[in-house]
């Protein structure tokens, strides 16, 4: 379980094609501290398992399903990525509950800089629109953000200087793909209401 608070901006240092999968080698001095085989690390919001690590680098295998459902397949050597370790039990929940299970991808449509922040407009797949509401939470490339405006096929977020400086959203220009994870609580509520279990007793 993650919180969407990015710990560091890492980098892909190698990509190995495994046929129906690939193996990434990533550099992240913060997230590799104390890392061991089998640990989870979120890479641009995708929960990946550490295969091996040495020094400030770790490797992770990415299956075809993940490559198809996320933007990780578009990354290559030199790509910058958001990295986060799972939250510890009892730690402060700085963002919101993030599973690291990507629901779909969007595209940066527009950037509007301001004096102290920047508004970014992102496309939203039709099957995810019902989960995105104004002032609700959404995860973009592993970053917990608050929705400013929820349109029929897009949403906007407002980014402070810290987010722009320390995450990939400070680098991505219009046309760039991003991973999206909607609030899991909304999905559970929908399922309960659809089954009739959300009705009063």
Task: Give an overview in words.
This protein is mainly beta. The protein contains three helices and twelve strands. The strands form two sheets. It has a six-stranded antiparallel β-barrel with strand order 1-2-5-4-3-6. It is globular, with a radius of gyration of 17 Å. It starts with 7 loop residues before the first strand and ends in a 6-residue tail after the last helix.
Largest sheet: 6 strands, antiparallel, barrel
Count the helices. How many? 3
Compute the gyration radius: what is it? 17 Å
Order of helices and strands: EEEEEHEEEEEEHEH
Strand order of the largest sheet: 1-2-5-4-3-6
- Give the total of beta strands: 12
Helix content: 10-25%
Beta-strand proportion: 35-45%
Integer average pLDDT: 92
* Estimated structural class: mainly beta
Oligomer: single chain
Q: How many angstroms does the end-to-end distance come to? A: 32 Å
The low-confidence runs, each spanning 5 or more residues with pLDDT under 50, are none
Principal-axis shape equals globular
Layout of helices and strands:
Blueprint: E1 8-17, E2 21-27, E3 40-43, E4 46-54, E5 57-63, H1 64-69, E6 80-84, E7 104-113, E8 118-123, E9 137-140, E10 143-150, E11 154-159, H2 161-166, E12 177-182, H3 184-195
Antiparallel strand pairs: 1-2, 1-6, 2-5, 3-4, 3-6, 4-5, 7-8, 7-12, 8-11, 9-10, 9-12, 10-11
Give the structure's gist in a few sentences.
With 201 residues, the chain is mostly beta strands.
């Amino acid at each position: 379980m993650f919180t969407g608070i990015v710990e560091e901006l890492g980098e892909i240092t190698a990509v190995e094609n495994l046929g129906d999968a690939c193996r990434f080698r990533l550099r992240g001095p913060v997230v590799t501290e104390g890392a061991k085989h089998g640990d989870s690390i979120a890479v641009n919001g995708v929960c990946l398992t550490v295969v091996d690590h040495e020094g400030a680098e770790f490797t992770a295998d990415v299956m075809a399903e993940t490559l198809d459902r996320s933007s990780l397949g578009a990354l290559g050597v030199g790509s910058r990525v958001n990295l986060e370790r799972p939250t510890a039990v009892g730690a402060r929940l700085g963002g919101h509950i993030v599973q690291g299970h990507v629901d779909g991808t969007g595209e940066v449509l527009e950037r509007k800089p301001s004096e102290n922040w920047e508004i970014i407009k992102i496309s939203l797949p039709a099957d995810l629109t019902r989960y995105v509401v104004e002032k609700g939470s959404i995860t973009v490339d592993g970053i917990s953000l608050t929705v400013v405006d929820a349109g029929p096929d897009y949403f906007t977020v407002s980014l402070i200087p810290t987010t722009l400086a320390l995450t990939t959203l400070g680098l991505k220009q219009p046309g760039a793909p991003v991973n999206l994870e909607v609030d899991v609580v909304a999905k559970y509520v929908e399922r309960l209401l659809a089954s009739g279990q959300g009705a009063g007793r």
